[in-house]
Amino acid sequence: MRAAVIREFNKDLSIETVADPACPETGVVLKVDACGVCRSDHHGWSGEHPRVKPGAILGHEYCGTVVETGRLAKYKVGDKLIAPFILACGSCQACKQGVSNTCPDQVAPGFTMPGAYAEYVAVPFDHNLVPLPDSLSPALAAGLGCRVTTSWHALTDRADVRAGEWVAIHGTGGIGLAAALLAKAIGAQVVVVDVVQEKLDHALSLGVDAAINGADGKAAEKIVELTGGGANVSVEALGIGATTNGSLECLAPLGRHIQVGMPVGKTARMEINMNAVYMKNLAMYGSRGMPTWKYASLLDLIERGKIDLKPMVAREIGLSGASTELHAMNGPTAPGTAVITDFSG
């Protein structure tokens, strides 16, 4: 099969012909129909993610069609499925308690096993997979594996966002933009922060209530003024110290901070304003992925027309175009995300 392989960190991916994946006994092999290019991939491509080494195949936001099944597989050849980026074992205590996104025996394509920057991908534990609704194109569905599901879980399960609350979102990349659209669908008032004015204008065009350029370092105080005392919920969607502190400092007393951006590599440990947490009695939540059982509520929201995800996909690209997208993430990026839909080269 054709695949995009890391041969050297921070360099163009190598488009190669590699062995087709072996079918796991507990899962399936998918012909990949679409795979998103995510900022989390950039952490692996740049060498910051400790589990990603040269020779790895990235890609964790994907959907596809079953072409082979294992002996214990749930699905059959021809099924069209969405894959969450966390593939949980299904039998441990965490899985039995409904928090499969914290499964200690999980695997993550693109990080701990070959991912979907390829024509085919093996998926163990196929009970995690979800049927692709006819109403969703593969390009849109690919984002449900990471950026959209992660945001939905963060807003609904971790922070319990309610209609009418002010939600501040720091960073308007894939996860940040998804969080903004989902928070509006819930009925929240939304303010977004970024340093790229084009991305702020894009978010405003999609219905967010306010947008703040954070380049001057004063986003938190502007949010406090805008909201009349601070946001009720704040989402950090980048994974760096500046936006984490901005998220904490923009909150009202008893506010809820959600850490959605992935702190890894040089940002795995950061200095944060714990005095803000202490003085304002803040709650801090970590949020990664989403349990598979939550897909039903998200897909229902989409199929009822309560949210339009089409503005999230800015570009459909070929496999060789992933390198350009990853290089671009070394600096500020344009609005929307890129999705690989052509795997021929």
Q: How would you describe this protein?
A:
With 345 residues, the chain is of the alpha/beta class. It is 26% helix and 24% strand. It contains eleven helices and 15 strands. It has helices at residues 39-45, 93-96, 138-142, 147-158, 174-186, 197-205, 219-227, 241-249, 274-279, 295-303, 322-328; strands at 2-5, 14-17, 28-37, 61-69, 80-83, 120-123, 130-131, 166-170, 189-194, 210-213, 231-236, 251-259, 283-286, 313-318, 337-342. The strands form three sheets. Strands 3, 4, 5, 6, 7, 14 and 15 form a seven-stranded mixed β-sheet that branches. The chain has a six-stranded parallel β-sheet with strand order 10-9-8-11-12-13, sandwiched between helices. Strand 9, helix 6 and strand 10 (210-213) form a beta-alpha-beta unit. The relative contact order is 0.16. The mean pLDDT is 95.
Question: Can you lay out the helices and strands and say which pair or pack?
Answer:
Elements: E1 2-5, E2 14-17, E3 28-37, H1 39-45, E4 61-69, E5 80-83, H2 93-96, E6 120-123, E7 130-131, H3 138-142, H4 147-158, E8 166-170, H5 174-186, E9 189-194, H6 197-205, E10 210-213, H7 219-227, E11 231-236, H8 241-249, E12 251-259, H9 274-279, E13 283-286, H10 295-303, E14 313-318, H11 322-328, E15 337-342
Parallel strand pairs: 8-9, 8-11, 9-10, 11-12, 12-13, 14-15
Antiparallel strand pairs: 1-2, 3-4, 3-6, 3-15, 4-5, 5-7
Helix pairs in contact: 4-5
Q: Quick summary of this structure?
A:
With 345 residues, the chain is of the alpha/beta class.
